[in-house]
Specification:
Chain lengths: 271, 272
């Protein structure tokens, strides 16, 4: 095996050990439980923690797959995992815009749920646009309470494409928006929004694999606007980590992406 | 070959990292980070500490193998770390058909002359049927001479695509050494695991196989000999599949096979 010319000490450390003591990763895009279209070898919370330990992931913020369909039972399932492993898991409360009365009812009680540190929108799946009125109570609630919203975003989507994210960011200027998958495929528009809006972030799940996209995000929006994510239990964190470590950026950028930006959003100390 | 250092200890396992799925070429469609030349490709491999690569040049995939197979082999001749992969077309026969690549024996002789030990196919892009009718004689020769076929899973032929095409090929030509390129990442296991069980000469290339715990399970279920490390570079980033394979929860000797040993063995068993 040749010695890499990549001079990054972080890359060297991860290459040798699979993780870094000085760079505890926070994964801002996780899930929990089985999903219809994929087989997961590591689906239990304990198995996810084993993976996180191997890959140096300190904490993961997840929404349960079940909450996509049944937001009541699914979100409860997520809360139970957070209560069992409070040092490793945090939850996103998944909002189903197709049941708007339930959304309002759930939001009234969400303040009493410390397990959840943000909201999750999966608009492509729910086939309802993030600009639609059924999302309005959740958007207002999150902005008022300072909670981030992780939105599944995909290039040219009529439900959650970057153009619609820009509209939401315009309407809710104090809302923290995490663009899940960074508007996959519509890179430049997504990056422009993150650059122009101080509270809009690019989240890397799936996007990391596209060669050159991390460099473009860092060059145009700054590494302070890029977040680590994996969709775990879908994707091995080493995959995302490797893409970041061998991107042509600095270790300072990598620290921002791996943990500093998430620490800021979640109000966490480094350790 | 050097010693692979992982998991906080030095392991006495010699590893040659061979990336079985890379390319280079002129920019044809919008590309974020192109890799235009063999020198660029060598630079990228060095950046990530990758020893060797099997190269399916864009010129062959996007252009026509009838000219580009040889031109790419000539271009790569001075790069011993880069081994060219040629694309197939239906061969010439007694009625000639189209036959741009000559007869099977002429094609095999050219492979030997240019040091080509692996083939690929783009039946949808190059518009032919990758089946027994159009390619049977060549497929039989590939079995006989142990020549691997690297088949991208985004290809289709005769109404069959991806894993269905793989299944048809292996049912029609038992013993064909088929390396399926680019599986996943949205969950192909239910599709391909029955094929891994049924066809012992099916190999999975890992560039897009991101599934958490997937590599370790496949090694346990079908043996580490069935996995081939690749990246899909420059379309996809080099580092992801590399770190995933380097830290999969498998024994070090298995890791050495996945990272390069398996592909090297397949290449070394080719008889031309």
């Amino acid at each position: 095996m040749s010695t890499p010319t990549n001079p990054s000490p972080l890359a060297q450390e991860f290459r040798e050990h699979g993780r870094s003591a000085s760079c505890p990763i926070i994964d801002m895009h996780g899930h929990f439980g089985p999903f219809q279209g994929i087989y997961f070898p590591n689906v239990a919370a304990e198995a996810m923690i084993e993976t996180m330990d191997r890959a140096g992931v300190r904490m993961i913020v997840c929404s349960s797959h079940e909450s996509l369909i049944d937001s009541t039972s699914g979100n409860e399932r997520m809360a139970e995992v957070v209560r069992r492993f409070p040092d490793r898991f945090r939850g996103y409360w998944c909002v189903n815009p197709n049941d708007p009365e339930l959304v309002v009812e759930q939001l009234e009680r969400l303040g009493e749920r410390p397990e959840f540190v943000g909201l999750k929108f999966l608009s492509d799946y729910h086939q309802y646009p993030i600009t639609g009125e059924n999302y309005q109570p959740a958007l207002e609630y999150a902005q008022k309470r300072g909670l981030p919203i992780l939105m599944h975003t995909w290039g040219n989507s009529p439900y959650d494409g970057p153009k619609l994210v820009a509209e939401v960011a315009e309407r809710y200027p104090d809302l923290t928006i995490l663009m899940g998958h960074s508007g996959y495929g519509e890179w430049d528009r997504a990056i422009d929004i993150a650059r122009e809006r101080s509270r809009v972030y690019l989240e890397l799940t799936a996007a990391y694999a596209v060669n050159g996209v991390i460099e473009r995000m860092v060059a145009r929006a700054g590494s302070e606007k890029v977040l680590f994510g994996t969709d775990l239990p879908w994707f091995d964190p080493h995959y995302a980590t490797g893409c970041i470590l061998y991107a042509h950026i600095t270790d300072e950028d990598r620290h921002n992406i791996f943990h500093r930006n998430a620490e800021k959003i979640l109000g966490l100390s480094k350790e | 070959m050097r010693t692979l250092r992982v998991s906080a200890r030095t392991l006495q396992v010699s590893v040659t990292i061979l990336d079985a799925n890379v390319s280079y070429g002129a920019v044809y469609t919008p590309t974020l980070a192109p890799c235009r030349t063999p020198d660029d490709l060598i630079g990228a491999l060095d950046w990530a500490g990758i020893d060797r690569a099997l190269v399916t040049a864009d010129a062959i995939r996007i252009g026509c193998p009838s000219e580009m197979n040889v031109r790419v082999a000539e271009a790569l001749a001075r790069y011993p770390r880069l081994e060219p992969v040629w694309a197939i077309l239906p061969m010439a026969n007694s009625r000639q058909d189209t036959g741009e690549l000559g007869s099977v024996s002429e094609f095999l002789a050219a492979m030997k002359r240019y040091g080509v030990r692996a083939l690929t196919a783009f039946p949808s892009k190059h518009r032919f049927l990758l089946d027994r009718l159009a390619c049977g004689e060549l497929l039989d020769a590939m079995v006989e001479r142990h020549i691997p076929l690297l088949l991208p899973l985004d290809e289709s032929s005769g109404g069959r695509a991806g894993w269905a095409l793989v299944a048809e090929l292996l049912q029609g030509t038992p013993g064909l050494r088929l390396v399926a390129l680019g599986s996943g990442p949205w969950g192909d296991d239910r599709l391909f695991r029955p094929l891994m069980r049924r066809f012992p000469t099916l190999y999975l290339e890992t560039s897009r196989y991101e599934l958490d715990g997937g590599i370790a399970e496949l090694c346990r279920a079908y043996g580490p000999e069935r996995l081939i490390y690749g990246s899909g570079y420059p379309r996809f980033a080099l580092g992801g599949p590399l770190l995933t394979a380097m830290h999969a929860a498998i024994p070090e000797q298995d890791r050495a096979l996945v990272l390069g040993g398996n592909m090297l063995r397949l290449l070394n068993e080719v008889m031309l």
